[in-house]
Amino acid sequence: MLGDNRLGVSVSKSVAQPGSSASSAHTRGHRRWVRVCHWLSAAAFMTLAVSGFFILMVHPRLYLGHAGNDLMPALLTLPISNNYRPDELHSRVTFMAVPGAPVTAERNFAIFNQNGWARSLHFLAAWILVVAGATYVAFGSVGRHIPTNLIPRGRELAPRALLQDLKSHLRPVVGAIGVGPPYGLLQKLAYASVMLVVLPLMVATGLTMSPAVTASFPFLLDLFGGYQTARTIHFFGFAALVLFLLVHIAMVIATGFGRQLRAMTLGN
Amino acid sequence: MKQQSRMPRRVFIKGLASSAGVLLAGCTPMDPPTYGNVLRMGDLLTYKAHRLLLPAHSLAREYDYSDISSVPAIGTTNPADPDKSSYSREHGPVYEQLLANRFADWRLVVEGSVARPRAFSLDELRRMPSRTQITRHTCEEGWSAIAQWTGVPLRAVLEAAGVHPTARFVQYYAYDGWVDGIDMLDALHPQTILAYGMNGRDLPISHGAPVRLRVEKQLGYKSMKFLRRIVVTDHFDDHGKRGLIQNGWSWYAGI
What we know:
- The structure holds two protein chains of two kinds.
- By secondary structure, chain A is mostly helical.
- Chain A has helices spanning 9-16, 32-58, 115-142, 145-150, 159-170, 185-208, 211-216, 219-224, 227-254, 257-266; strands at 61-62, 76-77, 89-94, 103-107.
- Chain A has a single domain (9-13, 29-84, 113-266), classed as Transmembrane di-heme cytochromes, Chain C (Fumarate Reductase Cytochrome B subunit).
- Chain B has two domains: 8-54, no CATH class; 62-247, Sulfite Oxidase, Chain A, domain 2.
- At the A-B interface, helix 2, strand 3, strand 4, helix 3 and helix 7 of A face helix 2, strand 1 and strand 5 of B.
């Protein structure tokens, strides 16, 4: 229970008197490298999300496998642009004289396409995210921040503990709550899965969309089941990260927006 | 300690200053210009990282015949059609005449930093050793398609023209007015071919007849259709207002 800063009464005592409890880990707030990596990643992520959405608008269809285009069935067609107009593809020609043979057709209408700046901005932000993320994982591993504060202990993951933490999130927050670690169980799971699972997956599926990278590392295409499957996973990773961001901001607001913002910027 | 380095101090300082300049500018005169644009600097970083970290001669995935997929034709679908927005008033009428004669008069001019500038007819290209590959076309828009391409390796054509040892880039020009270029590493790559066949037939007009480039380690827009001219250069050419960079696109598209 003490480890859960959402049940903050016991924790908030020590926060209220930071000078008197120098020995307590609860008052530590956020370390400098955590703050730097956090804001660099946050800026990079927002840039990636916006530019990625523009890129997706150009071809708002998702597929599985290696090939996928307007002449093939899609797994999902998103209603985010008017670029998919199958009725306006003309001069259809079949390549081979067999039933169900692949075809070609001409697209002669202008589409919405802002990929020039969007893709270049996407990669610029990706470089920043990779550097910030790698720095975070390096410092977090050496300084034990990740194993200590982000990875839940075995018994923390008991269904009862999970349920209890979930319930506590549904109650209104009373009083001040500590900033920084120790984190609650769901908080640990959220941060650990974003930093250690989803973001690395985004980088890997992103690289799988690169013709030059997959020429050198063809196992990426096999790992994800093809260029289009990697693109589809990249999209669902984006959706998961946006969901995380919304919950993250909601929690920050619920526990004192100004305090949390100051703590993540100034440390305490 | 004083004489630790045999390099004269002045030379050393000059060298240090110029390498610092290169580091600050992030590029050498051989690289695509950034014009101080932060997006182009990011493109340059990606290009340099690929050239530094990725093996130069790895091949793009080649697929089975049964993997061949449908493929839309986008961009210019016929350079002779004056109603299209991509119509070139300079080259469109010429393409129309070539088309009327089924490309018998078509020539691929190869010039620039070469010992023997020359023009290849379609038949001459067909008589050269060919390469057939089933590869994935990865469009910058987000779609992909798999097709079989047959053509002559660009390397063979460049060797026939005798590329000068100082050459660093290959520029190419098309009948729809497009112009672009690749570095010598991609130009000499075994899968970089001048394709005249697609899925076992002549290259269709909508896919770039009579000859298009295939650059398999970059996005589709580098695989230019409707080729008319190839120029080997010793230095980078951004092609001014007609080139990719000044139009806001990354010159390197290995992504």
